[in-house]
Amino acid sequence: MTGMTSSSRPLLNRRLAEFGTTIFAEMSALAVRTGAINLGQGFPDTDGPEEVREAAVRALRDGRGNQYPPGPGVPELRTAIAAHQQRLYGLAHDPDTEVLVTAGATEAIAAALLALLEPGDEVIAFEPYYDSYAACIAMAGGTRVPVTLRPQDGAFRLDLGELRAAVTDRTRLLLINTPHNPTGTVLTREELTAIAELAVERDLLVVTDEVYEHLVFDDAEHVPLATFPGMRERTVTIGSAGKTFSFTGWKVGWVTAAPELVTAVRSAKQFLTYVASGPFQYAVAEALALPDSYFAAFRADMLAKRDLLAAGLADAGFEVFRPAGTYFITTDIRPLGESDGFAFCRALPERAGVVAIPNAVFYDHREAGAPFVRFAFCKRTGVLEEAVSRLKSLA
Question: What SS3 class is residue 200?
C-alpha cells in the first residue's frame, strides 16, 4: 500500500486503542441484518411533539439558525434552559454566563472532561457507565476509577463507603449519572447528600449527567446535585433535549454551572464543534416551555411501557431490575441458564428475533457485568408487545 509509513506504530492513538466500534453500532447492524426488533440502542421509534417539530421547520424557513449560531447557544434557548432549571429545581442561572449549549450531552461530557482534567487526574465514575465516559476520560489523559453499583433488593445500589475509599490525593472529579444508564437507578436524597459532603470535604469537581431527569418513576425523585450545600460552585450539570423530547438526532444538549466552570467548558467546546444544531436550538427553546402536562404525559407513557416490557421479560425467565428512571431495563440472564451477556446478545436475534445490549461493555470489571443485559423500552407499544411475544420462546 503506497503512502503508508514504515513505522510499526499503530494508527490509532493509544489512549483510544481499547475503544473499537461501539457495541451500539454492532448490535444495531445485527438487528438490521437479522430483521430483529432493536431494543438495544436507546432511541425512540417515533418523533416527539408535532409543535416542537413544527418550531424547527419554522426556524429553518425564517432563516433562524441556518448560519452559525452564537458560540454559547442562541439567547432564546439559553433563557429557556435557565427558566427550566429555576422552575423545576429552584436553581437560578444567568443565561449569559452560566449556560452553554452543546452538540448533545455527549459533547457536553467530552468538553467538560477535556477542560477540567490534566493528564494523570483521577476521575471516579459509577460502574456500569455509559461508554462515552471512559473514552472521554481517556482522551483527556485522565485515569478512570470505577465504583461499582451492585445488585441489592431488586435494584443496583451505590456503596458510599466504597465511594469514599476510592478518593485519593489524585482525584480531581466525580462523574455522576442519575437517573443512571444502564441500571435505571435514581440516587436518593440521602446518597446525594453524602456525595455532596464528600465533594466539599475533598474539594472535588463534579460533572453530573442528568439527561433522564424527566424519566423518574414510582416514588423516585430527581434532585440535581447542584442544589446541595457547597455544590453550586463545583458542579457542572448536563441536560439534553434528545431524551426528553424524543428528537435524538437533533443533538441539542447543555451545561449549566458557575461562570468560571462554563468558561472552562466553553474553551474546550469551541474547538470541538464550535457550534451545532442552529434551527433546532430555537425549537428546543419552545419545547422547554411546554406545560407540565407534556412532561407528565411523557413520563406516564414510558411508565406503561416499562411495566409492559418488565412483565414480559419476567415471564420469559429473566430476573428483572425494575428501573426507577431512564428508559432501560437491566436483566440478569442466569435464571435462563446463561452467564455470558456478550454471547447471549449475539445469539438472541437468531433465537428470539430481539436485540439487546450486554452490560459488560459498561464495566471495567467485565466479570461484574457479565450476566447482565439491557433492553430499551422507548419504542411503540405494538413493537414492545411483539418483542415480549418473541421473548416467550426463551422460557
Answer: helix
Q: 395 in helix, strand or coil? A: coil
Residue 369 sits at the vertex; the CA angle it makes with 367 and 372, to the nearest 5 degrees, is 130
In the three-class reduction of DSSP (H, G, I as helix; E, B as strand; rest coil), residue 61 is classed as: helix
106-143 tens-digit pLDDT? 999 999 999 999 999 999 999 999 989 999 999 999 99
Strand partners, 373: 331, 358
Q: Is the dihedral of CA 354, 359, 362, 364 positive or negative?
A: negative
CA angle 327, 186, 346 (to 5 degrees): 40
C-alpha span between 47 and 238 (Å, rounded): 22
Cα–Cα distance between 294 and 51 in angstroms, integer? 12
CA dist 243 to 187, 211, 299, 378, Å? 19, 6, 11, 10
**For residue range 27-83, what is the model confidence (pLDDT) as tens digits?**
999 999 999 999 998 889 999 999 999 999 999 999 999 999 999 999 999 999 999
The overall longest dimension of the chain from CA atoms, in Å, is 63
Between 180 and 25, residue with greater pLDDT: 180
Question: Tell me, what's the pLDDT at 372?
Answer: 98
The predicted model gives 312-317 an average pLDDT of 98
Bin 264: left if φ > 0, else alpha if -120 < ψ < 50, else beta.
alpha
**pTM assigned to the model:** 0.96
Bond from prior residue into 182 cis (ω within 30 degrees of 0): yes
pLDDT tens digits, 218-252: 999 999 999 999 999 999 999 999 999 999 999 99
pLDDT of the residue at 126: 98
Burial class, 83, CB count within 10 angstroms (exposed 0-12 / middle 13-18 / buried 19+): middle
Using alpha carbons, select from 238, 214, 199, 261 the residue that is nearest to residue 104: 238
